[in-house]
Design goal:
single chain, alpha/beta, Rossmann fold, 14 helices, binds S-adenosyl-L-homocysteine
Length: 362
């Protein structure tokens, strides 16, 4: 067991089993050994590759959407353009470059902000953005963003926030807890908290024993804070993540290290821990604040924003190696077997405002 594993085992030994949410929060953000606090997760040499790290086309098309959303909400200025959970800062860099070209008035008039929980990644982002042009402000939470209209983007942020699991046990839904085996290794068990029937989708009511249902209060709380701000001050938001558009049962807790999945207890703090995002739960939070929420798959969004046309223009001057790379990137971002279908997009807009490629709710 590694050092963080020993630290968590000591905690469980002293205080009893912990929830999946607590295990995840410690593994990702422990100040000494946490994944985001100490490691370089992104890119070919890291553990996973995200859409902005696949290709500049991702950030370019998101920037086009932001510029259109800005016009659709009445082109307010001053306004903040923010990204939450910016990783290496690549998406912001691509967006700023694009906005300066396609929407100079917006790019010149906006305040740019990054919301990042990890001090180490904040330093990486400062470095990436050092010659991008505008001044950037960093915030540890969205609560301190300026009190003005907000355009906010997040890629793979919600999946990184802790979630809870409930197991069907003797006809009840009990929280799944993490305790210790006789030999001191981690194991799943049944905790004491339970979930009421109203908190479950109807499909879960008669699920067999052993079924798992996931909820994520931390994700809903973040969505609530962002939606409340947009509802009060104006603006729009767009979020990308892997997950499902409809609620469902199933264990989606996963660990990824060096581009491979492994057991969630194998290397605490050394692997990325995530679960699938329940977009319907986030949508419900957004609409409870009076906003319109629009959902799509990443493929629908990127193709609707002109991914193929952009790829064609980007490849125009290049040789065949460049063409092959661009074709592979398009496939990676929007292919049905790659990110295109698994990744979903949620847009938040003021009621009555529509921005393509999202269709209005029927
Ligand atoms: N958007 C980036 C990185 C995704 S990884 C990309 O697509 O490449 C998740 C990012 O969210 C990391 O930067 C992590 O440090 C950050 N993060 C995790 N929890 C956070 C929180 N509560 N508030 C802000 N950022 C957070």
């Amino acid at each position: 067991m590694n050092r963080l594993g020993e630290k968590i085992a000591a905690l469980i030994g002293a205080a009893g089993p912990i929830s999946v949410a607590d295990y995840m929060a410690i593994c990702l953000f422990d100040p000494e050994y946490g994944y985001y606090t100490t490691r370089e997760p992104f890119g070919a040499a890291g553990d996973f590759v995200t859409a902005p790290e696949v290709s500049q086309m991702f950030g370019e098309l998101v920037a086009v959407w932001l510029a259109e959303a800005w016009s659709a909400v009445g082109a307010p200025l001053p306004l903040t353009i923010a990204e939450i959970g910016p990783g290496r800062g690549t998406l912001m860099k691509d967006m700023v470059r694009t906005l300066r070209r396609i929407a100079p008035r917006l790019a010149a008039g906006a305040d740019f902000a990054l919301v990042e929980a990890s001090p180490r990644l904040t330093a990486v982002q400062r470095d990436t953005l050092s010659d991008s042009g505008p001044a950037f402000a960093w915030h540890a939470t969205p609560d301190t963003l300026p009190d003005q209209p907000l355009l906010i983007v997040g890629n793979e942020i919600f999946d990184a926030l802790p979630f809870r699991q409930f197991v069907r046990h003797d006809g009840k839904w009990m929280e799944r807890a993490i305790g210790l085996d006789a030999d001191g290794s981690f194991r799943f068990g049944i905790g004491t908290a339970s979930l009421a029937a109203e908190q479950l989708p109807t499909t879960a009511r008669n699920a067999p024993d052993g079924s798992i249902f996931e909820i994520a209060p931390a994700r809903e709380a973040l969505m609530s804070a962002l939606a409340q701000r947009i509802a009060a001050r104006g603006g729009a938001g767009i979020f990308f993540d892997y997950g499902h558009l409809e609620p469902g049962l199933g264990d989606t807790f996963q660990a990824v290290r060096k581009h491979r999945s492994e057991g969630v207890f194998d290397n605490p703090g050394e692997a990325d821990l995530t679960s699938h995002v329940d977009f319907s739960a986030l949508e419900a939070v957004a609409t409870s604040h009076g906003l319109a929420a629009r959902k799509a798959t990443q493929a629908e969004f990127l193709l609707g924003m002109g991914l193929l046309e952009r790829a064609g223009r980007l490849g125009q001057a290049g040789d065949s190696a460049v063409h092959e790379k661009i074709t592979a990137d398009v496939e990676r971002l929007a292919g049905p077997d790659q990110m295109g279908e698994l990744f979903k997009v949620l847009a938040l807009l003021p009621p009555g405002v529509s921005v393509p490629p999202f269709r209005d709710a029927s």
